[in-house]
Amino acid sequence: MFRFFLGAVIFCASPAIADVWTFETPSENIQCSVGESAESSDIRCTIIERHGPPALPRPANCQSDWGHDFQMFDTGPVQMLCQPLNRNRDGFDRAEYGVTGRFGGFTCSSSTKGLECRNLDGHGFFLSRAVQQVF
Length: 135
Prior knowledge:
Blueprint: E1 7-10, E2 17-24, E3 30-36, E4 41-47, E5 69-73, E6 79-81, E7 93-94, E8 99-103, E9 106-111, E10 114-119, E11 124-127, E12 132-134
Parallel strand pairs: 2-7
Antiparallel strand pairs: 1-2, 2-3, 3-4, 4-5, 5-6, 8-9, 9-10, 10-11, 11-12
């Protein structure tokens, strides 16, 4: 099972407190943060080094890094984020290959082929250095 660092985040819009877990693949190339509150959960994953075309075309208004950051909520489609790439590889617990973690509205599986995460609606993403997919 995933080992997680636990933290608390206070959201500015409301006094609700959320649990936050972070993990990375053994290669340290994919890092994720999961936030869970009483109302919803979200996951954001970054692939630091990737090859090939991005999973979705770059939006015309994107003037920053594209194809590295993926976000989804416990329901609804995946969003790719246009933002500067964070290459920090510190402070994440390791999700060993061959394990599946269930938290919030997500199930993520880490394997030697890559990381796959899905939400309650079945939307998700697969990330590896060679391939990134959104479904």
